[in-house]
Amino acid sequence: RKSSGGNAVMTIRGFDPMYLLDGRIIAYPTQSTAAAVTDNAGDIMKGAVRDNISNDEDYGGSGLTPSRDMVDFSVAADLGDGSSITRAFSWDNLLGMLQDTHEASVVAAGDSGTPVYFGIQTSLGLDNKPSFLFYTSTGQPGADRTGKTVLSFENGSVADAEYVQDYSQEVTVVYAGGQGTEDNRTISKQSSSTRYNASRYNVREAFAWATMAETAAGVTGEAYKRLNEGRGREMLQITIQDSELVRYQLDWNVGDKISYDVLDVQGDEIVRSVGVSVSSDGERLTTRLEQGALIG
Questions:
Q1: When comparing pLDDT for 113 and 156, which is higher?
Q2: Helices 94-109 + 216-229 axis angle, to 10
Q3: Judging by DSSP bridges, how do beta strands 257-262 and 150-151 pair with one another?
Q4: What is the pLDDT of residue 295?
């Protein structure tokens, strides 16, 4: 880009490996065992990736044109990680399905369990061609630096911060509808008494379609998923900056779990992304740490 009398500016953008997952769908019908599964959350994620990105098959069989088997893409071995859940995801976007399964693992884990995370590890071979490994984990992908790396205004590591409690989209009662019609439709009703008793006006209902679920347990799982999505949200957003005491790639990196003490809110969170911009003024980090706890 160049303006009259100005300097030419070149902007280069690229995608992270999640772009590969976002480009695929679950290409299997509702009744397929590749689209309706009860298993540990981590193994469900890996199975979906194998079926739709590292395996040359879809609902019609194998030997496809174009091939669905992506070159140099593999999936780590199953670990049985996470709670056992029921998921139905026929024709969903693959990345969206993985994100929803992570959210379902958060619900199933409760306060005492461990949610399942996913990621893609990238490496370069001798020919400088990349290879990709899809993996799941029940902890942070990077190092645990909690208590050691602490973000705060006092040590200069926080550029700005915002704390919000939002109940505007809260749902306290969910009806999920499965297969069938009218009186013959499978219905599961789930609610949170703690949340609807918080106010005399807080019975807030929603309906969730669960027609891809083959079992009553699958319909119930969709009801709980929608109920979880409808919880109030507590959001702390922190923009991180380098300081003498907290330095990028030395004291923290993407995937690390670090601590924060900002606006009288303390806790730990995983760093999920980092942005680096380079200009004539030098290099600048544009990283945001978001602690998005669900309330209730």
A1: 156
A2: 90
A3: parallel
A4: 57
